[in-house]
Amino acid sequence: MNQLRKKIVLSGMRPTGPLHLGNYVGALRSWLKLQDTHRCFFTIVPWHALSSEYENPKVIKDFTFEVALDWLSAGLDPEKSVLFIQSEVKEHAELHLLLSMITPLAWLERVPTFKEQQQELQDRELNTYGFLGYPLLQTADIIIYKAEVVPVGEDQAFHIELAREIVRRFNRFYGEVFPEPQILLTEVPKLAGTDGRKMSKSYNNAIYLKDSPDTIKKKISPMITDTRRKRRSDPGEPTDCPVFTLHRAFVNEKKREELAAGCRSATIGCLDCKKVVIDTLIEEFAPLREKRAYYLKHPGLVWEIFEEGSRKARKAAQETMEKVRQVMGLKLPLKDKAEEKI
């Protein structure tokens, strides 16, 4: 029977607004496959968003709804996966607190993304414990479901290694409670945004999953291509073309090779090449836009799905925390004492 048990997967996203193509190819696309082969917990994590948005927390609810919309529209299925909101499962906060008692400060200070994000978000005051400690909260998110597999890009691999260290330390102190989560490295293609830089909401250069066909066309048509191609007759190099990053992520290999050859020989123009990826994106995301329009008209259904998912997640988290309190000596017999007095 054990051999038939599906491994547990946990992954999540910060609610920072609607999802773009980079979020799709970097996470959602692999999640859609995993939900057919694993027992999946996928969570929207408002408490992580608070680490940088603490001055304007009111936006987080709307952003959470946007992410939920995109997840359901893309095909994440509440019948196959547990879809939930982290802040609705208070046990995450309790485990985070308990882990903070045993985690050396130096472990958190050496996380590469701590300094990187401070540099990237210089307009915000990020010298807070919440920001320093978010990898620890991330560890609590993962291990509270005893997740064995965590799909991440290479830039997040350090966080999972940290989670593994914390699990080893906890198990050494209190006994074997948590499995060490394994990294499932996912390919995260670097997609160029409309200005040629990495696609990012913060750069205001993203192509969103919810964008209409007309918006997709308006965003991609004026994009800069390989600067060698000043005229249509000038040959180019697709590997130096920002638009071709979209081709690599979405256009089938045969067509992609044909376009690359045409670019290098100058037998096709940049507008011809752009039209292929525009048409591909419009066609691929047509079902998503249709589903999204439906869920947008039925917001109560979206919240209901995530409320039910949060109940399922809470049940699993409560079982874990019962064990954690027991091994740490925090499960006091207060009920028994009260009964003795009666």
Features:
342 residues, mainly alpha, Rossmann fold, Tyrosyl-Transfer RNA Synthetase, 2 domains, 3-stranded parallel β-sheet, 7% strand
Structural summary, described in words:
The protein is mainly α and 342 residues long. It has two domains: 2-189 and 299-337, Rossmann fold; 201-288, Tyrosyl-Transfer RNA Synthetase (Orthogonal Bundle). It has 16 helices and five strands. The strands form two sheets. A three-stranded parallel sheet has the order 1-2-3. The protein is elongated, with a radius of gyration of 23 Å. The relative contact order is 0.13.
Rg, Cα atoms, Å = 23 Å
Helix-strand pattern, N to C? EHEHHEHHHHHEHEHHHHHHH
Fold-level CATH name of the largest domain: Rossmann fold
**Unreliable segments (pLDDT under 50, ≥5 consecutive)?**
none
In short:
The chain is mainly alpha-helical and about 350 residues long. It has helices at about 20-35, 45-55, 60-75, 90-100, 105-110, 110-120, 130, 135-145, 155-175, 215-220, 245-250, 255-265, 270-285, 285-295, 300-325, 335-340, and strands spanning about 10-15, 40-45, 80-85, 150, 180-185.
